[in-house]
Amino acid sequence: HVQLVESGGGSVEAGGSLTVSCTASGFTYSTHCMVWFRQAPGKEREGVATIDVNGSKTYADSVKGRGTNSQDNARNTLYLQMNSLKPEDTAMYYCAASKRFCIVAKLPDFAYWGQGTQVTVS
Description:
Layout: E1 3-7, E2 10-12, E3 18-25, E4 33-39, E5 46-51, E6 57-59, E7 67-72, E8 77-82, E9 91-98, E10 110-113, E11 117-121
Parallel strand pairs: 2-11
Antiparallel strand pairs: 1-3, 3-8, 4-5, 4-9, 5-6, 7-8, 9-10, 9-11
């Protein structure tokens, strides 16, 4: 049974830091494109950080320099650390997996999604 479970969200003051986690089970996430998405109310879902099957990482301009994407293969867990948080970072954060390479994967290619974890910056 494939499952992605996010955790670590919460409320934080602007300028603070937060790390959200995504624990995968039922599949080998290292063979998938793994992406952190976020969605704020009334806005489109935005991909903010990726880890591809070759370990390469990318970041959206909105988080570049403030976000760090990492993984712990022993724990099947991905992490997204966000620093210098801004109110515009407020969103539900999701992790998702695609069998396609990140560079070509489109939103419909992500078959596996977590339930999300809320990050609120004030």
